[in-house]
Design brief:
alpha+beta; 28% helix; Aminopeptidase; 30% strand; binds coenzyme A; single chain; 304 residues; 2 domains; 8 helices
Length: 304
């Protein structure tokens, strides 16, 4: 193995951050998938980010690998395509897991054969699988499906619907590692993004019940996302209040969002769903989505 020096720090200077981005770019070209996700990419240059960076240097201080660990215990790592099969990945994995802070594990975006092999060689197992599913938009997709009797749909109104949406989201995603803990601030951060469009955040209400303030209870919602100018849309967050699950809402709810995106003129729609969410996987397969990629978290066999 090449002699590699590992340098762990809580902050990267601008040159080191640029070197990491260049390395990640070369790896993405070689692998066809980004090893470093958007959150870790932003953390490279943000002073606020609570991320621990591990840079692997070969002779003449040449950066050959990089790993990062966030405060929640998730890590990512990448080795320069020119420096692979020389023990760099193994050294980074061992350093990450030696810190005892990798509570969740290491993301392997695209679950590439090399990542699978490295994980197996280090005794790590898949602890979470995130599926990317996709479908093309076909003629007729722009027509809204019919909701079950007693439900109607309307668009989210900023300033009116935040609390109800947060409550249903929290209940629908109670066991989800990220989505279930979204706060008002998180919601407002997303609403401030240039892609946010209240018309694409669809609320399904139970019209058989009317509260004193005239509102109907929120039963479910489908938040769609489309970056400005993009020809691809996303099924961003779909949630049904537990009290309304099992009443046939999931299919039409999915269709309302895909119809909205189709009317926006997108050619294709994708989504992310956890591999153990069998009901959601089945709903999306029925709606014509197929597996496009898989992201795997590798952790210790005992990891939750
Ligand atoms: C996965 C990755 C980090 C491996 O880095 P690396 O420095 O080439 O890995 P190492 O040289 O330390 O390999 C350690 C062991 O992993 C296994 N391994 C790594 N790459 C392999 C490959 N392409 N084929 C088969 N086995 C492989 C082998 O058992 C290897 O030991 P050996 O060389 O003695 O046989 C690198 O390919 C990469 O950056 N991929 C893209 C990003 C990614 O998938 N990150 C997630 C990692 S969990």
């Amino acid at each position: 193995m090449t002699s590699v020096h590992l340098d762990t720090s809580s902050h990267l200077d601008a040159t080191a951050a640029a070197d990491v981005l260049a390395l990640a770019g070369r790896a993405a070209d070689a692998d066809g998938v980004d090893a470093i996700s958007e959150a870790f990419r932003l953390a490279l240059t943000s002073a606020r980010a609570e991320v621990s960076h591990v840079a692997a240097y070969a002779a003449q201080s040449r950066l050959v690998g990089y790993a990062a660990l966030d405060a929640a215990g998730s890590a990512e790592l990448v080795v320069d395509p020119d420096a692979r099969r020389q023990g760099v990945g193994r050294a980074l994995v061992r350093t990450l897991f030696a810190s005892q802070q990798v509570a969740k594990g290491v993301w392997a975006h695209g679950d590439l054969p090399a990542a699978r092999a490295l994980a197996a060689a280090e005794g790590l197992v898949s602890t979470r699988e995130l599926h990317v599913m996709a479908r093309v938009v076909a003629p007729g997709d722009d027509v809204d499906p019919v909701l079950p009797e007693g439900f109607s749909v309307r668009a989210f109104e900023p300033g009116r619907d935040e609390q109800a949406w947060l409550e249903v989201n929290g209940l629908a995603f109670a066991s989800h590692p990220e989505q279930g803990s979204i706060t008002l601030q998180d919601l407002q951060d997303r609403m401030a993004q240039d892609w946010f469009d209240p018309a694409g955040l669809l609320l399904v209400e139970d019209t058989t019940v009317t509260a004193a303030d005239g509102n109907h209870p929120l039963a479910a919602s489908h938040w769609t996302k489309r970056e400005p100018g993009s020809s691809t849309g996303e099924v961003y967050v779909v949630g049904v209040h537990p009290a309304y699950q099992g009443r046939g809402l999931a299919g039409p709810l999915t269709g309302l969002g895909t119809a909205h995106l189709a009317r926006q003129g997108v050619d294709a729609i994708d989504l992310y769903v956890d591999g153990d969410n069998t009901r959601a996987l089945a709903t999306y397969r029925r709606a014509g989505f197929e597996d496009a990629a898989i992201h795997v978290v590798y952790g210790r066999p005992s990891a939750p």
